[in-house]
Automatic annotation (TrEMBL):
<keyword id="KW-0812">Transmembrane</keyword>
<feature type="compositionally biased region" description="Basic and acidic residues">
    <location>
        <begin position="330"/>
        <end position="341"/>
    </location>
</feature>
<feature type="transmembrane region" description="Helical">
    <location>
        <begin position="143"/>
        <end position="165"/>
    </location>
</feature>
<feature type="compositionally biased region" description="Low complexity">
    <location>
        <begin position="315"/>
        <end position="324"/>
    </location>
</feature>
<feature type="transmembrane region" description="Helical">
    <location>
        <begin position="185"/>
        <end position="205"/>
    </location>
</feature>
<feature type="transmembrane region" description="Helical">
    <location>
        <begin position="59"/>
        <end position="81"/>
    </location>
</feature>
<keyword id="KW-1133">Transmembrane helix</keyword>
<feature type="transmembrane region" description="Helical">
    <location>
        <begin position="111"/>
        <end position="131"/>
    </location>
</feature>
<feature type="transmembrane region" description="Helical">
    <location>
        <begin position="226"/>
        <end position="251"/>
    </location>
</feature>
<feature type="region of interest" description="Disordered">
    <location>
        <begin position="315"/>
        <end position="341"/>
    </location>
</feature>
<feature type="transmembrane region" description="Helical">
    <location>
        <begin position="22"/>
        <end position="47"/>
    </location>
</feature>
<protein>
    <submittedName>
        <fullName>Uncharacterized protein</fullName>
    </submittedName>
</protein>
<feature type="transmembrane region" description="Helical">
    <location>
        <begin position="257"/>
        <end position="278"/>
    </location>
</feature>
<keyword id="KW-0472">Membrane</keyword>
Length: 341
């Protein structure tokens, strides 16, 4: 059966494209939410299993953080699904179509706005904290390093509050003003994540160079590998933010797809950071000293037909005849030795 163009709603091509972007963004957001649910339970399981009387003060904040984020993401996804259903099914004939209905302020839409803002604040706070941890011990004073990110973080919170007051239309001043707070709010938050991603990657690259220079490229890979840099710096969310800002700058209606799914992608990036911390692979304040003081448990060098192995002060020489000579030096008594042939 061929499709008839008369079945198309009486709307402009740009409006239809915006509606398609919104609907596709909802689908992408649902997929990202599923990934976030899996990550949440993985993080919760690791943190809860490791918790005891000695470390519960350290791990409990992570449990509270991921649980709060999970609740917010669930409320956001449920409200988004319901609001999308209202726009595309129940009130499909609203003047201007679903694209115009999106600007209607109803409780279900307000829930998505509030949950999205709270999630963004929590996520921005986490990346600011990670930046502080990774730069701890730097020669430059910490307040100089963190002054600008913290200032941007505070400004983004202020813009978020004003944007919420504007979109909920609960305050006459914000609802009647011509100022659009959405642009400075999203720009500040996205720019903050992009900047922190860059400075964290630069710091980890510096650590990687120092570790490789002293101990070789095989050391500290769990902290300075490409995958570690992507996760620690929340590069997934930053790349998503760059794409969104580019599309907004080009006035492309496809930006709606990125905007709708932005919250869930941000949650994935944050849960990946918590998951690395729960695994013990996240960068901490003593990671650099720990890696730099580590040494291989065994080093083997081949010299002709002989194998040389050193482990805890022991030496083994094996010739081509199969004869083995094993020598052990005790750390407490350097003069004692055991020789077996």
């Amino acid at each position: 059966m061929s499709l008839n163009s008369s079945w198309t709603p009486d709307e402009s091509s740009e409006t239809l494209l915006a509606e398609e972007g919104w609907l596709q963004g909802t689908v992408v957001s649902a997929v990202a939410y599923g990934i976030g649910v899996a990550l949440f339970f993985m993080c919760f399981h690791l943190l809860f299993r490791q918790m005891n009387r000695t470390n519960y003060k350290k791990l409990l904040p992570f449990l509270i953080y991921i649980t709060t984020t999970f609740i917010l993401s669930t409320l956001f996804m449920a409200a988004l699904a319901d609001f999308t259903q209202l726009a595309f099914i129940q009130y499909r004939n609203y003047p201007g179509g679903p694209s115009a209905f999106e600007n209607v302020s109803i409780p279900m839409d307000n829930i998505t706005d509030v949950c999205g803002v709270l999630t963004m604040i929590l996520s921005d706070g986490l990346v600011v904290w990670r930046c502080m941890v990774i730069y701890r011990g730097c020669m430059v004073p910490m307040w100089i390093i963190m002054f600008f990110p913290c200032l941007m973080f505070a400004a983004s919170i202020a813009m978020a509050i004003m944007w919420l007051l504007q979109v909920t239309a609960s305050v006459p001043y914000f609802s009647s003003t011509d100022i659009n707070y959405s642009i400075p709010y999203f720009t500040l938050s996205l720019a903050l994540n992009i900047i922190i991603t860059i400075v964290i990657v630069l710091r980890l690259l510096t650590y990687r160079h120092r570790i490789s220079k002293v101990l070789g490229s095989s050391y500290g890979t769990q902290y300075t590998s490409i995958a570690a840099m992507i996760v620690e710096s929340a590069a997934i969310y930053s790349a998503f933010s760059v794409a969104l800002l580019t599309l907004i700058g080009l006035n492309n209606v496809i930006s709606e797809t990125f905007l709708v799914s932005l919250t869930q992608v941000q949650i994935i990036a944050m849960l990946l950071i918590v998951f690395r911390v729960a695994q013990g692979k996240g960068w901490s304040q003593d990671t650099m000293s720990k890696v730099m003081t580590s040494r291989p448990s065994a080093q083997t060098t081949r010299m002709g037909d002989f194998g040389y192995n050193m482990q805890d002060g022991s030496k083994t020489f094996t010739g081509s005849t199969g004869t083995g000579v094993h020598t052990t030096r005790k750390s407490k008594d350097r003069d004692s030795a055991e020789l077996s042939v």
